[in-house]
Amino acid sequence: MAGVKQPADKSHFILPDLGEGLAEAELISWKVKPGDAVKEQQTLAEMQTDKALVEVPSPWTGVISELCGKEGEVIKVGAVLVRYAVGGASAKSSAPLAGTQTKPSAAPASAAASSAAARASTGATHSATARSSAGSGGHSRGGAAVAASNGADEDQGTVVGSVSGTLSVSDRFARRTPESAAAETARGKALATPAVRRMAREMKVDISAVPATGRGGRVTASDVAAFARGGSTQERTAAVSARSSALAAALPPVDAQGVSQRIPFRGVRRKIAEALDRSVRTAVHFTATDEADVTALDGKRREYSRVLGGKLSMLPFVMAAVCRGLRLHPALNANVDDANAEILLKGVINLGVAVDTDAGLMVPVLRDADRLSIVELSDGVKRLAARCRDRSITREESLGGTFTISNVGSYGAMFATPIINYPEVAILAVGRAKERVLVKDGRFYAGLVLPLSISCDHRVVDGAEAARFLNTVVKLLEDPGDLLG
User: Fold this and answer.
1) Which of 37, 52, 202, 298 could form a disulfide with 395 if both were Cys (CB 3.0 to 4.6 A apart)?
2) Is the Cβ–Cβ distance between 404 and 351 less than 8 Å?
């Protein structure tokens, strides 16, 4: 992230970009307290990004003097996260939060000198080594790092393992609070991620003139794209204002009587809510349902289980059928790029699989699923599910999905109206298989029926195409010889 640099005097640690282009993350828990002596790479805090729980390590050895944030608070990338005691004293005054920089008289002269020296050395460079929360799967955005216009290096992303550089904390990286957001809005400064700002520059759009519809008054990529496509600022502003007023007026009063517990809306649950809300507001959902007679396939599943010496569920067989179906119906194996008004058909099949955890729903991605055998699909799902449940799943393992499967049958449900994992365009819910009396060629027999529900983005997938895909999956599940041949 442009302009995010760590201090040379190691007086404080600035929250780096925890993932590709993230602007903020929620502070879940502190792992240290003021007065603690910490070593390099020792975990300081756990933070929730939009995809994963990330451990933030200390970039150097030192003594903690101040923790700059409360658990549950959303911290902006570039804001001071932790202060260290330097020279036997708290470093609090050497690098005030951007939001407090309007009170220079309160800062000691040494702090002013330090800041001046830092500003004078903006041409210095720094390096960053990234690692994931689990110690594997980490990555660096070194390839994406571009020198800022002032000559300083950009933050190279992800969690910083070792950092050197110079201090420069701009007020635009202050921790986001309602007050600071309002202040920035009042000053006419648009709130937006670097990616959205870059997009605005490339589209030659003045981002400060774009009406914001994102959370906390943030300008989104869709806002920029819509602004570029036309519509005056006044019209857009009026539309946004009217929508916000209508939403507030439509909210029913909350009855506080009889409340037994108040649970903060935070962490994974908040990320789930944001993702689902974005999907419902953006994609045009419709759902189709069907059933598959999996009597023969269940027999084949039992044979696999006996050979393998362990239970094999129906899910990997469904995944294999879905992969075959997506090859035949590529319109469902796609993402929507609303910012550029494009449909991105994918040449790879990366299956997301919804996993229920104590923290909430998570969707890890099994890459190149169409190249995996039944056993490999089963092992892959088990491995990712375990990493979700012990919270060791990395953000990279939850990115790049092209289609999602939700196995609601594991919890007894039959049919569902699954919400699309936006920007994907389709999701399949697999229900609980049940024995039924079936009829074939005029004869009754006892069979096993598997309910299937698929939701699609009607902007991309027509109802007929969704039905054809579902028919393909059903036929494959009903003919294990064809599916496994």
Assistant:
1) 52
2) yes
- Measured CA to CA in angstroms, residue 447 lies from 75, 299, 472 at distances of 55, 11, 20
Question: How many angstroms separate the CA atoms of 312 and 298, rounded?
Answer: 10
DSSP H or E stretch at residue 410 = none
Q: What is the pTM of this model?
A: 0.61
Helices 463-478 & 315-328 angle (0-180, nearest 10): 130
Catalytic one of 126, 139, 329, 458: 458
- Render pLDDT for 83-113 as a digit per residue (tens, 0 to 9): 999 865 544 444 444 433 333 333 333 333 3
Say which residue, 407 or 167, is predicted with more confidence: 407
pLDDT of 220 > 50? The answer is: yes
Rounded Cα distance between 470 and 468, Å, is: 5
- Cβ pair 459, 423 in contact under 8 A: no
CA distance 426 to 405: 9
Higher pLDDT, residue 19 or 285: 285
Q: Judge whether 329 counts as a catalytic residue.
A: no
* Residue with the two structure tokens 């549950």: 72
The C-alpha atoms of residue 196 and residue 194 are separated, in whole angstroms, by: 5
Distance CA(73)–CA(270), nearest Å, equals 12
